[in-house]
């Protein structure tokens, strides 16, 4: 139950309704929007929310669901029901276009069974009756006009009309040429008057040509004459036109009669189109306001996370501003939130946001909140917003408030949501405050839920000492003297009356007099609230700063670990290359020694030849030794001090980098894409030329590092066809195996399971694949496949 009657209007739901109205394609959809009501049954609300959410998903994923043509099939069916009546060409074309939309939508959901189960429920097992389309296609062309061959008789009549028109034209052209040759004709060509083709004749020559005058010009100098010879032909042509019209009506009556047995099915199609238009409009509005589907619960409670007022969101969106999100909880233990704080600080918007979002959810609309938000179901929603003065009812502002309070107290239950703006105002604060406190106590005893805004200190004190009630305040920036529009639960807020007055420039003497007239206790309470808020903001800023510092430390640690991994990998590669080269050197040396011994034997130990062979062997070994000694000399250390911007090389390594910062004995060095802190004694300075050469030598390693850095172990294939998906999997597996990743994650969605089956069969072909597993049920289940490599 909603109270008062203008509750929806006061909370802004009427404006929401109008915005959804604009997205409807048909009057039927708009009628359903007008009939939207606040529901209280969980299953009904859940069904409407899920339908809207599924249609929103279709729109956001740009699914090929073509919906553009909606007509009122019901009015056409009502006409068909009457015997003897018939649908004209335009009406038949409207029905045809609407049925094409229906069948297109039915085919869309048939191809995606169980993907959108709640929208599929709208279909109600509707059959695709193609006979209706075939019957209409036999009569109408694609533009909605009667086909010339709709019947044999019509085709014959149309042929006779064409021949008669040709005869009329030929005879008229002949007479017109004769009249022109005799200079009887006025300026102009053949024209139509009263549906007859006429020749414009000068009035002075009208008796020179036999015929019928159908009209004359404004000046009377020209008359429009139908020649007598053409008159009979035109009468014949007109008779044929009448015959054509009678035959068309006969065809339309026959077609309408054929469609009459399908009236129940056509009404079902009409109902489906109406619901589809309604759900589509709600989904489009949800996208406009950035809405999501919250978690719907059966209990009377609310947990809004990052909530926005939809109308405020749209207004700010036009001005390219952002809405400060609202976070508020209403539970069994924390039933009523008493919001206080500065004027124009957002108290009323906070309360209206809670009320409007609750009404939207119970009307089947998605709301602009984080998807983890929880929204319950309330049987009653009572709102006291505005003064509701009434001359007719002889109600003052305060009387109107009391009338509402009487109703609240009489009908409130634990499943009632109460929304009261500026509680207790409208009369002397000395009496209004206690009256409001008494009403609040009774409502709390009835365990109602609600959001109430106030400036009264006695209500703040009462809320602080009463179980079930909780103070909350809208934060205020003391430095800039501006409201922050952030709700903070747990403490009351100051009204900042003096600070705001001072900020807008109210005279000093007025402020001093006001402070003197304000009670000492009240001043002390207000000052304490202001100081508490200031200290809390300082603590918050400090925590934020510490959090940022911790994030920086984490990033530095991650970079160091990445660098260490990079160096370890390089060390392994270098050692492996050195071992291979050493093996090659030993192999070549052994071969050379064996060849030398063989030659000495062949020469039968001739001393001179033996000496020469030994010298050659020694020479080769010395040359190789010199080559080995020269090879590591990649860079020559410079003796000048290291400065920012210099290039350095790690000791006993070919890794080079550029100095970014110098902190005493520590250097911040850029090693490719990595940043690392190194001791000065671990590096030595090299020239720019040496650095360039070293970088070129390490370009391959850098490219691998870059490839690893850019690679993500997750592949999303949702919405792709089988062949394209397998092609992407092949490329992705090759890259994963080449870069040495231990496992990858493939997202293919659930659907009918076809794509999942194709991918898993394809993975069996790879010997490098060790096993495949489903994701955890809470995080996607068999819609995601993990692939582990050997």
Automatic annotation (TrEMBL):
**An MF annotation (GO) of this entry:** endonuclease activity
Domain of life the protein comes from? Bacteria
**Keyword ATP-binding attached:** yes
Instruction: Tell me which residues bind ATP.
Output: 341-348
Q: What is its EC number?
A: 3.1.-.-, 3.6.4.-
**Keywords assigned by UniProt, alphabetized:** ATP-binding, Coiled coil, DNA-binding, Endonuclease, Hydrolase, Nuclease, Nucleotide-binding, RNA-binding, rRNA-binding
- The coiled-coil regions, if any, are 546-606
> Taking every annotated instance into account, which residue ranges of this chain make up the domain Smr?
715-790
Describe the family membership recorded for this protein in Swiss-Prot or TrEMBL: Belongs to the DNA mismatch repair MutS family. MutS2 subfamily.
The subunit structure is: Homodimer. Binds to stalled ribosomes, contacting rRNA.
Function of this protein?
Answer: Endonuclease that is involved in the suppression of homologous recombination and thus may have a key role in the control of bacterial genetic diversity. Acts as a ribosome collision sensor, splitting the ribosome into its 2 subunits. Detects stalled/collided 70S ribosomes which it binds and splits by an ATP-hydrolysis driven conformational change. Acts upstream of the ribosome quality control system (RQC), a ribosome-associated complex that mediates the extraction of incompletely synthesized nascent chains from stalled ribosomes and their subsequent degradation. Probably generates substrates for RQC.
PANTHER family noted in UniProt:
OS10G0509000 PROTEIN (PTHR48466:SF2), OS10G0509000 PROTEIN-RELATED (PTHR48466)
Q: What is this protein called?
A: Endonuclease MutS2
Name the gene: mutS2
